[in-house]
Amino acid sequence: MDVLELCKRGGWNDEHHHPWDTVIKAAMRKYPNPMNPCVVGVDVLERSVDGRGRLHSHRLLSTEWGLPSLVRAILGTSRTLTYIREHSIVDPVEKKMELCSSNITLTNLVSVSERLVYTPHPEDPGKTVLTQEAVITVKGVSLGSYLESLMANTISSNAKKGWAAIEWIIENAERALS
């Protein structure tokens, strides 16, 4: 199944007070950052430009989930290093970046699929809108709804950290230029 097909439901919107081009450049350089130290490695597996001028990137993220001991006990694992596959498409003509990610570790216990779409604000080109969706599925575990809720809260918290990271990257890039 294609990564893009995994991203289907649930979500929220937010906006950056920077133009789309600026936000996308920062989003492509988002890791590592001090706001989300759980991402400990990023490997570009493939990057290409298609016939329509869109940049396709496939990356592997190494993350340290830092699951609480109660959650590790419920899941029956001591493993905290996990891997996430990420596929993004940046369309500079339509000014749209779509990024889908899903875990490839512990999928027999929990699946997290996330979709982010960055577009210019429809009324203010100096701003960028982010639409974010996530699907969390806990499999064959008692207290599954508790774990789904915990994961949803973590994703929401990480989304805020992601915004802060993009702001941090933009500010540091502007400081480096001045």
List keywords for this structure.
Alpha-D-Glucose-1,6-Bisphosphate, Chain A, domain 4; globular; 178 residues; Slowmo/Ups; PRELI/MSF1_dom; seven-stranded antiparallel beta sheet
Give the tally of structural domains.
1
Mean pLDDT: 80
So how many helices? 3
> At CATH's second level, what is the architecture?
2-Layer Sandwich
Unreliable runs: 1-12
InterPro entries: PRELI/MSF1_dom (IPR006797), Slowmo/Ups (IPR037365)
Pfam family, one: PRELI
Protein name: PRELI domain containing 3A
GO molecular function, one term: phosphatidic acid transfer activity
Describe this structure in words.
There is one protein chain. It contains 3 helices and 7 strands; from the N terminus they run E-H-E-E-H-E-E-E-E-H. It has 178 residues and is an alpha+beta fold. It has one domain: Alpha-D-Glucose-1,6-Bisphosphate, Chain A, domain 4.
